[in-house]
């Protein structure tokens, strides 16, 4: 029997695996939340499949998304990243990963964890939508608008509302699997 999946992932084994195993699963681990934050910021203006194909390279290049290490990156490390063809070599995005790591740590200090801070925007619970088609799914919501505005106020970069809504989808803050998808009731 064929599994019914969200339309956006069909046809690429990497995309389907990501959809089936990760997308929309509620995440509460700060390191993983930081990984998705970095990946989503690098995705801005690109397709998610481009980022997924480079994900292992990003993990290697960015010390497995250890935000304490990233917050301390030197100019030499930045230059090394900009020469790394395995990742997206965008100076502003590389700089933003470092700035965002520093601000991520500040949020942990202020809230006890990034998880507590970020999930506070949805009162600690996944928002379960009931979309019948991919076309119904919004690119932003009032919550992603508020999240984006607050993160920017705290010094984060590349965290526009569209990026933050994609982050919410990826980390299970919203369940945007379509109702006919086999994952809809599983996550």
TrEMBL record:
Its EC number is 3.2.2.20. One of its GO terms (molecular function) is DNA-3-methyladenine glycosylase activity. The keyword Hydrolase applies. Zn(2+) binds at residues 6, 19, 177, 181. InterPro entries: Adenine_glyco, DNA-3mA_glycosylase, DNA_glycosylase, Tag. Keywords: DNA damage, DNA repair, Hydrolase, Metal-binding, Zinc. One of its GO terms (biological process) is base-excision repair. The keyword Zinc applies. It catalyses: Hydrolysis of alkylated DNA, releasing 3-methyladenine. It is an enzyme of class 3 (hydrolase). It comes from the Bacteria. Hydrolysis of the deoxyribose N-glycosidic bond to excise 3-methyladenine from the damaged DNA polymer formed by alkylation lesions. This is DNA-3-methyladenine glycosylase I.
